[in-house]
Amino acid sequence: VDLDTARQELEEFIPHVKNISDSSVRKMAGRDLMRFKEFKKQGIAVKFGRFTQKENKQIRKNVEEFLELTGIDSAEKLLFTSRYPKDKYIIHRLKTEHQFWEKISEGIPRPWRLIYYRARKMFDPNNYKGRYTAEEKEQLKKYQALYGNDWKKISELMSRSNLSVAMKFSEIKSAINYGPWTEEETQKLMSAVKDVIRRKLITEDPSSLSSLEQSDRDLWIDREQLYQPLPWTEIETKVGSRYWRQCKQKWNSILTRKLTRGQKLYRGTNGIRTKITLIKRLYETKAEDASDVNWDEISNAIGDVPRAYVQSKFYRLKVSFVPLWKRRTFSEIIDYLYEKTLPDLEEKL
């Protein structure tokens, strides 16, 4: 299939394919297109977003079967071949001969690249090493001074994942304020969010520039735009005195306050009602995984609040009320909240 035809056929499944590089489109044409067409025949749509528990199990199954097929002795060797320079040529040959990209994607209606990245996250032993020590933080500063933002190299030197070292450096690279937000910081944050959303709107629809400039509406506060993922490391740079996670948390609190007009939805009697509604709605979804939940619908049921607000409240619920919640599946947590916690909350109300 030639490049233009591949891009055209892929657009049915991946609307933003026009923004993807030619080389990536060629790979997707070979590794995804036939699979997507098969899923379409079965009435299954291509998915994005958070992986479900079922998909994670399928990835584990695909990786284990490929290891058994090829004799490669660990998932780390398969997925992080560069860590094993003596074996890398043999592993690369086996992956090519046995069609690794097709095998790892079997049974999962997602682009191969997302499946591959998810597998790397699941099987990377460096992802689960706990908090950084003071020595590691100093090491990270030193390596970043030497190698810049080459996180792949730094992650190998520190035996931490790429994402982990990048995000940790974001937190420690400068003097960060941990106290209450000042009015100046808050204004910088709101201005930064406005800038990135405005840029995104103009990129998606250049003709919107004039209407953006002429409109008296606070366009950047439109609900559908605010719920899109934001580039938090870029926003962190614009704010200057807070790291990305603080910016994200602060923005969610600002957004909640604006949308609820300052109502205290999670305190007192309102707080109990919110918990009850949240548990009931989650139970009614019969979802097996958090990624199967339509959080926007649930946020609408609770009030005009962002989905991040509802998700944070669910997190507090399970931590506060569900014993050994880390060992339970999503559906088991919901069942426990519905059967054990809900009656107590209703009696308290």
From TrEMBL:
Signal peptide: none annotated. GO terms for cellular component: nucleolus. GO terms for molecular function: chromatin binding. Residues 124-172, 173-255 form the Myb-like domain. It comes from the Eukaryota. GO terms for biological process: termination of RNA polymerase I transcription. Coiled coil: none annotated. PANTHER family: TRANSCRIPTION TERMINATION FACTOR 1 (PTHR46760:SF1). This is TTF1 factor. It comes from Loxia curvirostra.
